[in-house]
């Protein structure tokens, strides 16, 4: 086996085996089939990357198909959001499809099954049907309506379509095997009555097909070659194949369903019901909140599509469900933004520093490199003046030899500027330091080439000129849950693990180059982390979100606790 073959995931091995057995490469077609009943999350991103990635690998078309068979929960808003998310991730679909495109064909095939005695109208209540379906260890019993005549079934089904019956009065069921060990094969429901307007077909239909009946037949209509689903659909494969057997033409491509494992992400939940509860209970502001694992939330927080694609590629495809540490996702966004994000200076916990020997009223504009990882990024000018802000944690009156920042009697370099030395400090009545007085070496300007500028000092600090600083709202986001798997505790509600410190809002002071940054722009606040401009930002009030810190501080916190 070659190295390239060894590197294939098990789904790619399946495809390669099909090609070796004579399946035409030109007949390969994939699909991403979201239901438009909510926003896509990081779990969907893995599926998107899988299907579209296979399309790119094999130069095969990939359809974007919306499984829109439940008008009670689906909206055009979700359709638009899904398309936006897929495009943002960097993928282009071949054709945009909808299960609702096939409502007539599905109905016609249902009529065919009724005529062949393979489907019937059941008029039991949902409770009665559940009771007679049996258990995994006990066979079900047949519905008293299972042997209705073809004529009666056709008449009732047409009446359902015409809107003559209330919801719940009748359903269409496939006639398969009430003793099957696979409970999904025990006469599954194919159609139910719903008197609700559909976001595309409006009120044209009063009956809507169920997922299992719709999915495989839609794959077949679109000639999808490999229908890839998550593991919870493994038991559905037998039914998928049974429904295909009723309509398939041997001269056409028969779709093949195969399953892969979900990749759950630590310190979050991805159940739509639970995500909705976070929104409804006000734990987060919306589905787009930067703490949410939705793609729109990650985008707003500052994650790049490249980082999410790299994350999906790194975790790969597996046959067993497992929990992926969110730190791996954070590593990927750090790794990508390190290459592309401009470096800027911002102070988030300011301490005033007065450079006493710098002339009052003067200022100068210093050269600052935008990104040492990217030569083409160029440089910018930053203002320097007598009074600046540094971070409070970067100064101590006294400190041991391992403290390489500013302390009394010692020197540090100001990034892109001068070497300064702390001489004294001022405190308030409670003993808090409010100001530090320093002197600077006029000949030590960074990049000047003087002997003084080349002098080595151990610490380098970021800073901003107080006179020129931009005031900004800075939102410091952290993990939404304190537990790595909050929804797996049988005796506890997942809401008990909500992190009370998942958002802290502060006022920061930024260098003036950030004044006109566009929404979504990602930058590195030097020594602090990666941040991006939030949609709430205006020219009057800048708003930045912390995407991720420069290092994984969470691991240290967990060790201490």
- What top-tier CATH class of the largest domain fits best? Mainly Alpha
Query: What strand line-up does the widest sheet have?
Result: 12-27-28-29-25-26-13
Strand content: 15-25%
Question: Which geometry do the CA atoms define?
Answer: elongated
Overview of this protein structure:
- The protein has 561 residues and is α/β, with parallel strands linked by helices.
- The chain folds into 3 domains: 103-212, Glutamyl-tRNA Synthetase, domain 3; 266-340 and 469-560, Glutamyl-tRNA Synthetase, domain 2; 346-462, Beta Barrel (Ribosomal Protein L25, Chain P).
- Helix content is 27%, strand content 24%.
- The protein has 14 helices and 29 strands.
Task: Give the tags.
Glutamyl-tRNA Synthetase, domain 2; Glutamyl-tRNA Synthetase, domain 3; 7-stranded mixed β-sheet; 14 helices; 27% helix; alpha/beta; Ribosomal Protein L25, Chain P; 561 residues
């Amino acid at each position: 086996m070659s190295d390239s073959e060894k590197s294939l995931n098990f789904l790619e091995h399946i495809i390669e085996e099909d090609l070796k057995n004579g399946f035409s490469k030109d007949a390969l077609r994939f699909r991403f089939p979201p239901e438009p009943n909510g926003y896509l999350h990081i779990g969907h991103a893995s599926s998107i990357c899988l299907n579209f990635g296979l399309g790119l690998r094999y130069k095969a078309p990939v359809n974007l198909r919306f499984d829109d068979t439940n008008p009670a929960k689906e909206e055009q808003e979700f359709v638009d959001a899904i398309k936006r998310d897929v495009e943002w991730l960097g993928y282009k679909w071949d054709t945009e499809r909808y299960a609702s495109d096939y409502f007539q064909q599905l109905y016609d095939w249902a009529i065919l099954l009724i005529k062949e005695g393979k489907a019937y109208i059941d008029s039991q209540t949902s409770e009665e049907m559940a009771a007679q379906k049996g258990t995994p260890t006990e066979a079900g019993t047949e519905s008293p309506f299972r042997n209705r005549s073809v004529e009666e079934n056709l008449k009732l089904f047409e009446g359902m379509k015409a809107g003559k019956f209330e919801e719940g009065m009748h359903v269409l069921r496939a006639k398969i095997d009430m003793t099957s060990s696979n409970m999904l094969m025990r006469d599954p429901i194919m159609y139910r009555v719903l008197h609700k307007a559909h976001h595309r077909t409006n009120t044209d239909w009063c009956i809507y097909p169920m997922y299992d009946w719709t999915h495989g037949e839609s794959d077949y209509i679109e000639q999808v070659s490999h229908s890839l689903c998550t593991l919870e659909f493994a038991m559905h494969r037998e039914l998928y194949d049974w429904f295909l057997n009723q309509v398939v033409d041997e001269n056409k491509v028969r779709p093949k369903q195969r399953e892969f494992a979900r990749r759950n992400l630590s310190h979050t939940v991805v159940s739509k019901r639970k995500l909705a509860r976070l929104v409804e209970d006000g734990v987060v502001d919306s589905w787009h909140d930067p703490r949410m694992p939705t793609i729109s939330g990650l985008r707003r927080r500052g994650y790049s599509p490249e980082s999410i694609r790299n994350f999906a590629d790194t975790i790969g495809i597996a046959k067993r469900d497992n929990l992926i540490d969110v730190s791996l996702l954070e590593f990927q966004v750090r790794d990508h933004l390190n290459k592309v994000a401009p470096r800027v200076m911002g102070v988030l916990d300011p301490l005033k520093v007065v450079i006493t020997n710098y002339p009052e009223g003067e200022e100068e504009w210093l050269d600052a490199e935008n990104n040492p990882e990217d030569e083409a990024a160029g440089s910018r000018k930053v203002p320097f003046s007598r009074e600046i802000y540094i971070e409070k944690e970067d100064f101590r009156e006294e400190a041991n030899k391992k403290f390489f920042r500013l302390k009394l009697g010692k020197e540090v370099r100001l990034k892109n500027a001068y070497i300064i030395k702390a001489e004294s400090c001022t405190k308030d009545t409670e003993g808090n330091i409010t100001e530090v007085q320093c002197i600077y070496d006029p000949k030590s300007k960074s990049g000047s080439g003087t002997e003084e500028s080349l002098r080595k000092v151990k610490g380098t600090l970021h800073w901003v000129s107080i006179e020129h600083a931009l005031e900004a709202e800075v939102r410091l986001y952290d993990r939404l849950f304190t537990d790595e798997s909050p929804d797996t505790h049988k005796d506890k509600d997942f809401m008990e693990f909500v992190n009370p410190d998942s958002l802290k809002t502060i006022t920061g002071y930024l260098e003036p180059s950030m004044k006109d940054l566009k929404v979504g722009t990602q930058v590195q606040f030097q020594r602090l982390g990666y941040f991006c401009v939030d949609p709430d930002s205006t020219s009057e009030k800048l708003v930045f979100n912390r995407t991720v810190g420069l290092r994984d501080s969470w691991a240290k916190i967990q060790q201490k606790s």
